[in-house]
Predict the 3D structure of the following.
Amino acid sequence: MTAPTQPLHAVTADVNRTESWQWHRVLAVVQQCTARRFVAGVFEHRRGAHRVLTTDAFLAAYLTHSFLVKDNLHQTQITNTIRGWTPSQRIAVGLAPDAVITYKMVTDGLARLGRACESATYPDWDAARFAQSLLDASLQGHSPTGAVALDSTDIETWGRIRYRKPLVDADPDTPARPDHSDLPHIPDAPKGHDGRYIYTRDPDARMGWRSASQGEQNHFCGYDAHVITDVPASPKSAERPVPHVARTLCLAPAGRHKGVCGITALDALPPLPPPQELIADRAYNFTRPTTFTIPAWQRGFTTIYDLHPNQRGRRPGPVAGTQWIDGTLYTTCLPEGLVDLAPLTRDMTTEQRAEIERLHQLRGAYAFTPHGSRDPDGRRRYRGPAVTHPSIRSPKAPRSMREDFRKPTVYCTGDTACGCAITVTLYDTDEPNLRMPMQHGTREWEDSYYRREGIESLFGDLKGNRLDVHRGAIRGFGLTRYTLLLGFALATMNMAILRDWHAKRHRLDPWGEFLGEPPPAARRDRHPATGRRPASSTRRSTQRPDR
C-alpha cells in the first residue's frame, strides 16, 4: 500500500538524526516515566481511526528533539526528528517503518495532552505533575546530595506586548524595583482571573522582573521557572563537584509570589539525605515568613540566604540583654566597633578580606550558639557566649572567668541587662527570614552560600550552553503548553548533563550503567574526580635533547 500523495508545500527533506546513545537513553526514560500510562490513556480515549503516532513515539520524539535542536521546540522540527528515525528506531516505539508522520499528528498529540491536563477527567494529573514525572525519570539512579539550590529564571511568552508602558504588577513581597506605576496604560489592558493585567494574546502570561543581561530590559512578559538543583553537601566538599541537574520545576506566571512557588518546587523533591540544606535567592527570604521560610523549616530544611540591604542592621532581641545583628543573636555586651561590619564580597582585595574576616571572627565570640536541634513545634534553644564552652569571659558566669585570658572579657555588673550567661528559647516566628546556621558575611557563610552557583550553571545550560530557550523558542500560548514543553527540554538536558559530566571523568553515568554500556577507557593523566590534568603533565621540558 503506497503512502497518500501530499501537496508540494507539505513535502520536506529536512531530518534530524538521532545518535545511538541518545536513542537508548530516551527509550529508557520513556519506559521508566510514570506518566507513560497516563499519556496512553489520553491517546486511546478517542473516536475514529487508529492513531498512527503511538504513545512511545510521541514521548520519544519530544525528548529526543532537544538533543538535536538547540534553539527551539517547534512542532515542525519535532516532526523532522521523527522523520530522521531509522526503521529499527521506528519499530522500537511502535511505528511502522513506512509510516508517514505529519505535522498535524504531532501538534494534535500535544494539544490532546494539554487538554487532558486541564480537564477533570484525569484529576490526578496536570501539566506540573507530568513535567515532574519526566524529570524524575531522567534522574533514575542519580542520588541527591542532600543540599539544593533554588532560584527562578524568565521564560518569555511568544505573544507580543500589545499595550504601551506595561505595569509590572508583581506580588507585593518582591524587593523594590524602579517605580513606573504612574505611567498610563494606552489603552487600558484587560485583567485576568487573578486581577493582574494581560498584555498579550497569551492569557496566562504576566509581567515580571528579571536580572537584565545582553541588552535585555529588566522587565518581561511571560513566566517564571522556579527550578531546584543539586549542590555539594557541604562547603568542604565543594572542591568535588556534582552535576547540576534540574530536580524539580514549578512554572508560574511571571510576578507570582516567590514564596508560594518555591514551596511548590520543594514539595516535588524526593526525600533528601542529611544535611537537607536549602540555598535560596534573596527574593525568597524577602517574602513573608509564613509563605516560605517557616514552611521550609517545617519540611526539615535548613535555609541559607544572602540578606537584602533592608534586612541588615541591629534589632532588639527577644529578651533583655540580647540583640539581633544581620540575623544572628548577640549579647548587648558586644563592643560598638563590632556592630556594623560589611559582609565579605568577591570584589574585595586579599588584604580587605582578611581584615573583614578578622573582625567577623571577633564579633562571633559574642554570638549565641544553638543548644540542640529544632523541636517539631518550632522551638530551639540557644546558649549565651559565656555558658558551656564559653567563647568570652563574663563575671555573671564565674566558670567562664577561668578560661584563657586571651578570650574577650566583659565587665557586666549585677544591675546590667546582659545576655552573656543566659539560655534563650527561640521560636519559628523570631526573625525567621534572617536566621542561618552561620553568621552572615563571614567566610563560612560565603563558602556555603556560593554553592548556589550550581543553579546559575543550570540556567546557563538552559539559556545558551546546551539549549537556547529564548522568546520564540516555544510557540503557542498558555501555562500548560509551556510547562509541558519545558519539562521535555529539562529532562533531555538532565540526560546530557549526566552523560557529559561522567564522561569527562571517564566514568559511566547512571543511564550508561543501566543500559550495560562499556566503561570508557581510563586515562592516567587526568584526576579521577575532577577530570583535569595535573600541572606537571601539561608542562613541556625546556631542555634540548642530547644528540
Summary: The chain has three domains: 8-125, 139-306+452-478, 313-434.
